[in-house]
User: Which sequence fits this backbone?
């Protein structure tokens, strides 16, 4: 009996791998997914507890027409976030503030956006870009907590070209680049105004992963416990198959080195950051009567310390964001820690991590009650460091790899799930994404 040879092999059955497998199947390709673990999902899981749902990674996705299309094709209803959750806070001067800038700092920021060229300069870090384009106050009070919360990185070590380059293509003031970005989206499918912002699904993001897995396993093949260590051997076994590597950064590099000498120099250069999240269930909320999406905590540029000694990078208010996330009368807060400046937190025990969370919470809400439960998730290498080395690596991926080999993940087009979806659709549906 002849060996089945798939048109397309996907290595990794996390969100990225399942998405690419699904889109390849829709194009009529036969697909084989090879997964190292015993289950799909990667970082993303939605865990049901007696108190409510816990998201082990992202708690939602920024909506876009690609996600709307994907959900429709999978037969899923998108869950819109509650209007009251649109308020985002930054902790400054002892309070949670929606905009921590003074009137004079706002005037200075407006002047900068109207006059200062905003395209990232070659080799410029996010810190240098923010200081040059936005000014020191906006950098420390707004940009650092915002990007620090998303990328968990050190702004000094982050490449402005890699993180911001696609949004700022012209050497023009910020307002002109924003206008250019808006104009570039004309002609593309649009989503309804009431469906913009962060969205999810009933049962959490795991619902989307489950639907992708079901479709891929029914129309293609998923093989588990497949530890692929050598890309060259896989290419010998399946010389005519396309290959998409959809693993974490370290595994992708290991596979590439087995066949392409150009990537051997990146060994030890591409760093990743640990992330720890703790979802806390209780009967009171830190917001104490208010509502909102979450709060970020600015870190000192050099010491990574924050006001009041808060160790958390941010807190998400889960039950305010999406309905049905908890049982009646219970609040869910997810504390996010780790990243640059606090790698050590990922080596602590769950009991020690919970103790840190409760200490942070008392500093913010001394009248808080006794927690009902905690759910701790520790990822040792969750996020790549978006530095100049990763920027060079991405350029080499585009330059070196032949058309039948792709490498995809949160280190390619941006760190969020929205960026992964947009990039995937641009590859499989270029006419719609152009």
Assistant:
């Amino acid at each position: 009996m002849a060996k089945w040879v798939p048109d397309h092999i996907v290595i990794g059955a996390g969100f990225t791998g399942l998405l690419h497998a699904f889109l390849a199947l829709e194009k009529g390709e036969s697909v084989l997914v090879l997964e190292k673990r015993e289950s799909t999902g990667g970082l993303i899981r939605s865990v049901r507890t007696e108190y409510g749902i816990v998201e082990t990674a992202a708690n939602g996705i920024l909506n876009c027409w690609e996600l709307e299309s994907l959900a429709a094709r999978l037969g899923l209803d998108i869950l819109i976030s509650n209007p009251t959750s649109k308020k985002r806070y930054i902790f400054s001067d002892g309070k949670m503030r929606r905009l921590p800038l003074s009137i004079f700092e706002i005037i200075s920021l407006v002047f900068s956006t109207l006059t200062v060229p905003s395209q990232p300069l070659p080799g410029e870090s996010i810190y240098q870009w923010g200081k040059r384009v936005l000014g020191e106050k906006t950098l420390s009070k707004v940009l650092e907590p915002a990007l620090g919360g998303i990328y968990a990185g050190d702004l000094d070590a982050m490449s402005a070209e890699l993180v911001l380059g696609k949004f700022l293509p012209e050497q023009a003031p910020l307002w002109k680049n924003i206008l250019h970005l808006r104009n570039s989206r004309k002609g593309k499918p649009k989503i309804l105004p009431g469906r913009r912002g962060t969205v999810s699904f009933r049962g959490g993001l795991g619902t989307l992963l489950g639907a992708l897995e079901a479709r891929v396993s029914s129309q293609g093949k998923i093989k588990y416990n497949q530890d692929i260590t050598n890309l060259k051997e896989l290419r010998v076994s399946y010389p005519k198959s396309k290959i998409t590597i959809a693993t974490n950064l370290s595994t992708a590099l290991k596979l590439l080195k087995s066949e392409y000498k150009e990537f051997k120099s990146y060994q030890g250069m591409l760093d990743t950051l640990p992330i720890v999240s703790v979802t806390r269930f209780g009967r009171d909320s830190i917001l104490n009567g208010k509502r909102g999406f979450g709060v970020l905590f600015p870190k000192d540029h050099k010491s990574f310390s924050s006001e009041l000694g808060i160790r958390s990078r941010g807190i998400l208010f889960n039950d305010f964001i999406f309905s049905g996330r908890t049982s009646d009368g219970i609040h869910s807060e997810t504390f996010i820690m780790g990243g640059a400046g606090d790698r050590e937190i990922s080596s602590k025990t769950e009991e020690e991590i919970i103790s840190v969370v409760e200490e942070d919470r008392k500093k913010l809400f001394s009248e808080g009650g006794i927690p009902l439960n905690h759910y701790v998730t520790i990822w040792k290498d969750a996020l790549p460091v978006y530095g100049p080395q990763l920027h060079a690596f991405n350029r080499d991926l585009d330059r070196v790899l032949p058309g039948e080999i792709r490498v995809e993940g949160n280190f390619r087009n941006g760190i969020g799930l929205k960026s992964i979806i947009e990039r995937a659709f641009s590859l499989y549906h270029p006419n719609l994404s152009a």
User: Anything to note?
Assistant: The chain is about 35% helix and 20% strand.
